[in-house]
Amino acid sequence: MMSEGCLTFPYLFLNIKRPRKIQVQYEDDDGKEITRDFDGLFARIFLHEYDHTLGLTFVEKVSKLKFDMAKKKAEKFYKRALKYAEIQKSRQA
Question: Choosing from 4, 27, 33, 49, which is the catalytic residue?
């Protein structure tokens, strides 16, 4: 399991279980069938983006309780980031 985020949900990170290695088959623009192996972070990224093509987001892969806890943590982080930005802005003025 590894922490995963998404631009759709800024500051939100969830532990998502995904395979470490995958093999995918697809057709290129010329219709030629291609097989590729992905490992580690590249496999995770591929599966994350593939989920998007199926209309899924990573929040659907965890329980409501885990999502709610992560959402609260994200909100706290966001508030801290805003406060930090305000401090930096006031120092530049």
Answer: 49
Q: Is the pTM of this model over 0.70?
A: yes
Locate tokens 């631009």: which residue?
Answer: 7
CB distance 29 to 50 below 8 Å: no
Contacts of 10-13 with CB under 8 Å at 24 or more apart are: 10/74, 10/78, 11/74, 11/75, 11/77, 11/78, 11/81, 12/59, 12/70, 12/71, 12/74, 13/70, 13/73, 13/74
**Per-residue pLDDT for the chain (93 aa), expressed as one digit of tens each?**
899 999 999 999 999 999 999 999 999 999 999 999 999 999 999 999 999 999 999 999 999 999 999 999 999 999 999 999 999 989 987
Query: Is-catalytic flag, 33?
Result: no
